[in-house]
Automatic annotation (TrEMBL):
This is Protein kinase domain-containing protein. Residues 1-19 form the signal peptide. It comes from the Eukaryota. It comes from Urochloa decumbens. PANTHER family: OS10G0142600 PROTEIN, WALL-ASSOCIATED RECEPTOR KINASE-LIKE 21. GO terms for cellular component: membrane. Pfam families: GUB_WAK_bind, Pkinase. It is found in: Membrane. ATP binds at residue 436. The lineage of its organism: Eukaryota, Viridiplantae, Streptophyta, Embryophyta, Tracheophyta. Residues 408-679 form the Protein kinase domain. The chain crosses the membrane at residues 348-372. GO terms for molecular function: ATP binding; protein serine/threonine kinase activity.
Amino acid sequence: MSSALFPLAALLLAALAAAAEPECLTKCGNVDIPYPFGIGARCSRGKGFEIACVDNGSTAVLPSVSKQRIPVMNLSVAPPAVKVMLPVAYRCYNSTGATISLFEGQVDVNSHGVYRISDARNRFVVLGCNSEAFTQNSPRKGRGRYDYYSYYAGCVTYCLDSRSAQDGRCASVGCCQVDIPPGLTDNVVSFQDWPHNDMEWSPCDYAFLVEKGHYTFRVSDLHMDGSRSSMPVWLDWAIRDNGSLSCAAAKNRTGYACISAHSECVDSVNGSGYFCRCKKGFEGNPYQAKNGCTNINECIRPKDYPCYGICKDTEGSYICKCRPGYRTISGDPTKEQCIPKFPLEARLALGVGISLGMFVSAVALLLIVMIFHKRRMNEFFKKNGGSVLQKLENIKIFTKDELKKITKNNSHVLGKGGFGQVYKGTLEDDTVVAVKASIEVNEARKEDFTNEVIIQSQMIHKNIIKLLGCCLEVDVPMLVYEFAANGNLHDVLHDEASRQLPLSLDLRLDIAIESAEGLTYMHSSTNRTIRHGDVKPANILLDSNFVPKISDFGTSKLLTVDKDFTMFVVGSMGYIDPVFHKTGHLTQKSDVYSFGVVLLELICRKPTIYDESCSLIIEFQRVYEQENSGSAMFDKDIAVTEEDVLVLEEIGWLAMECLKEKVEDRPDMKEVAERLMMLRRARKHGIDGASGVRVTSRRSASMEL
């Protein structure tokens, strides 16, 4: 036949195919059937491309030489591939190792030379213990007495015991896998004879071809028991026409398949033959002349065909340009955003100018902030009395930055003081300190605050919390004190978590004596008359050895030095001297009254208000009046012996004297400290009943408060 007739023949075949299309089914179940495939010879390209639609039109099946039903899961034109389900081969054994069932999984999908098992998309897997299996083609007759195979690929698995195999690992323990060569047309599995005695954990060997990435080994699969009868496998297909056709040869022969305009021919990489595809910029079915490969409108598919400018579709391609006045650095708006056009020199100059301007502005702003901050700190320093306090020799003036370093930016909160949080800190010499806020200072109170710091700096006594320094560069001055590791007496006495601490009578007596000594020092041992004004257990701190430290000079902050009156009655309810509360007249005997309440809390271990409405002072007085003794109120943990009770009676009586309503009837702090020390000496030396320390008879004195 003349070569001039080939195009005419191709067009004739295309016309025939096109005429058949309206009558042909294009779907079977969930599987699309694109040409050159078809249901029936008239609807497909010919033998090898026919698809059977069975089970009332629900299942697509690929005919095979072995007459097996090979279910089709997917038919693809581009790329040329068919996804099918192929059977799993198996060999099962009894407890003695004898074979009781065998299925070699033989299948031949290449009755007309169209298909090859894909080497790129499948692999061969073997499951079992003491197993060796091979995938091979059907045997061919050799010249001698033995058959031969065109391919032979397999692997060996082994298990030491039932626990050897691991989920997810297919590396020769319970599972092995190998790649397969190209060009395979059929498949049969060969199992080798290895011992299988008493291997109940792996009663069968399994072998199968499977799509790469589809199968993950599980130990339970060694007991598959036929639950997986097939696996997905990809087949490559091509136009082979029972010969070794290439594109170059096929174009000059009748029946050339690539008949759509804008289609092209590609040589098969898995066996001889060729397949067709649409040229770049087109999509569709290259095997159909009508509506085969059609133009792709790239502009409506920006994810696949990006354009960061103005997109215009063309036949087989598209044009992407930046809009007027814009450009890209690389010149390709399909790869990067369009930006406004600008001369390079001007752009560089502008960039340098902007950068320099921003740098200068940033430096200037930083300098302004630093100057403002420095000026602000100087204002705080002066407002808080820094010009006077910096002359003191026995305290240190800390800067704001030093204080941040000491407290690690206030990272460790100890609790809340009268004027704000209290923080734990560490000095450079590893001394642990407590940092707390003082009062907010203004011009009216500047002198008061300055005097308070001076007074506290001069009070050097083992039972008064030591002021180590202060920071004046902040709005509210911060005071740095020595650290009391055991917190305050109120928490030790009354906090649920602390009630388990062993607070013996002797320890409580020591705390009372040393607290009284600290107050005595304040009242009489300095060159100024000082009143604390807020004596209570919460303001008695305890160091690591339970040595008490008087702290938080509450009301004294609000007094002018050497004055007795204050317009502000400040203190804690339950501890305030009634005379001070009524008149605003704060005296040293006001501290004595408050200390009397502290003594009651020490011996009773009850707060000033307990059981919601009971007043410790009133209840203690009532018990004394009724029973002529306070033993019913004493803490049972320390009222153990008769001597203990007598000592507690004496402390209770002293507390009652401190709480007398008439100020002149109260002892001063020096007398209180001395009487407590006499009581401790009497207890230490065993004076009978400790009665020798009593100055006034309890029974003859008035009990009025």
